Amino acid sequence: MSQVWSSKVTFAHGQLHLAGVPAKQLAEEFGTPTFFLDEADFKARAATWGNALSASFGQNAGNVYYAGKAFLCIEVAKWIAQSGIGLDVCTGGELAVALAADFPVSKIQVHGNNKSKAEIRKAVEVGVGTIVVDSLIEIERIAAAAKLAHKVQKVLLRLTPGIEAHTHESIATAHEDVKFGFSISSGSAWEGVLATRKHPEIEICGFHGHIGSQILSMDAFAVAADRLIEFLAKYRDEFGVQLPELDLGGGYGIAYLPEDQSLAPETVLPALFDAVQNACAKYKIDMPRISIEPGRAIVGPAMFTLYEVGTTKEVVLESGATRNYISVDGGMSDNIRPSLYGAEYTAVIANRVSTSTVRSSRIVGKHCETGDIVIRDIALPSDLAPGDLLAVPATGAYGRSMASNYNHVPRPPVVAVIDAKARVIVRRETEADLLGLDM
Ligand code: LLP
Description:
12 helices; TIM Barrel; 21 strands; binds ligand LLP
């Protein structure tokens, strides 16, 4: 089967099943739209990334930090803790989820280009393992917070290695004209090093680079590793000590369409190892501990969204051809990625088998906006009708986590399914929840 579905999705008796539970039963019990999370698949992916880092880097393996921004809730944070990997949080809110899940604080890494003083104080107070420093101003804030808490805070400096990874502009982060981190080429990274070293309350452990998201080739990662390791060598040459850590960020791409090939951990880690080893030899330094931060690659394929078809209508195009508009009961409020990044998805009928001829179709949401498109162009059976269930795979990353209440649409729940049992781990929002904010 194509890589868009999680491992426990099967098609049998005319229906999609997740971990043995048929789609119609899931829809009846939990309603639509709903994000269904393949619990075994998620846990296996988290463990596989952790094991793959150790297998490739051995004693130089640092941590795999799951990037919580892709999707985070208390239950998922507990699974991450059980799998033994770390957690990357990038706001006080994500940190609050981690703390509510009793996530081991030493395995939390804190990101963000504009961490507030309060967020930094909280992170230092609870004892997070690492803060990834993004600016000079932040160095002063971390030092002040650590002084207040009588602690020494471990940090990495986030560097922009000056690479344009081949991905959508708003998710490529390591070229020079971006808000994140210290630029290596402009000298600001060195300023960051000097500023950090002034503070006895801060222990600089190494550097961090994240080049973008949904990247499908390893070349850019290798170039980034080279530049960061060159910078580690510069530090060693200047101060006579080598920093122990390098975090190469996340960004490993997944399959959204049947023909896509994801970047698998068994491919990524050996390639990263080679790149790191070559660069260490080139710049004559010892291999640092290597950490990575996959988000999408762990949760993306582990969820699908189940929608119910509400209305359909045929539109005659200028060319004379026709298009079937299929409206589902969600849309841009539960998946903003098609409108925001032009992201593409696929879909299947989940509740029955159709033998009708296929026709050019567009799956749209229920929002009051023309751009509210889930799938711009897809061939679907012409007998698709109100009440049918459509499953859209690979919606686990940046789906529920970027959901909004646009048009006062309550956000969908997340239901975890494992061994033929389904349970709600994030409940559906209600109209009462929405009204509850109005004073
Ligand atoms: N580490 C850092 C510092 C990051 O900024 C990110 C993602 C990750 C790790 C995880 O990247 P991943 O492995 O998930 O690609 N909303 C966009 C993606 C934004 C990514 C932001 N940073 C989307 O829906 O495609």
